[in-house]
Amino acid sequence: PWSLNSLGAFAGEIMLQDQDYIKRTRNLILSERDRMIQELKEVDTYKVYPAYANFILLKIQKDGLTSYDVFEACIKQGLMIRDCSSFQCLDGEFVRFCIMMPEDNSRLVKVLKSL
């Protein structure tokens, strides 16, 4: 849990009233998540785990490629992903990333496919 100040709590209440925005955002996340999963499943470099949230978890299966390597390649392109090497219970090489805007998702998929 995170603590919020009164301004943050008020902004959250106002934001949750915009049902049209919430619906559009949810649909965008679902469609982009499905698109990215399908594209990345075609790449032998990664094992793609089923996703039920707004992020995707990948296990790197390419010998010699580390989560740090993937992280660095993405950072150089202005894309932030999570190197999961510090996560408990994730043996091996894993990265995680959130669903972004379609153009950023396409750039990310391009970087991931290039490795």
Output the keywords.
single chain, 115 residues, alpha+beta, 4-stranded antiparallel sheet, 4 helices, globular
Question: Can you walk me through this structure?
Answer:
The structure is a single chain. With 115 residues, this protein is of the alpha+beta class. The chain is 49% helix and 14% strand. The protein contains four helices and four strands. The protein has helices spanning 6-15, 19-41, 67-76, 102-114, and strands at 46-48, 55-60, 82-83, 94-98. Strands 1-2-4-3 form a four-stranded antiparallel β-sheet, covered by helices on one side. Helix 2 runs parallel beside helix 4 (102-114).
What is shown here, in short?
By secondary structure, the protein is α+β, with helices and mostly antiparallel strands. It has four helices and four strands, in the order ααββαββα.
Chain-wise SSE layout:
Elements: H1 6-15, H2 19-41, E1 46-48, E2 55-60, H3 67-76, E3 82-83, E4 94-98, H4 102-114
Antiparallel strand pairs: 1-2, 2-4, 3-4
Helix pairs in contact: 2-4
Oligomer: single chain
Tell me the helix content: 40-55%
Strand content: 5-15%
Structural class: alpha+beta
Q: How far is the N terminus from the C terminus?
A: 37 Å
| Average residue pLDDT | 94
The ordered H/E elements are HHEEHEEH
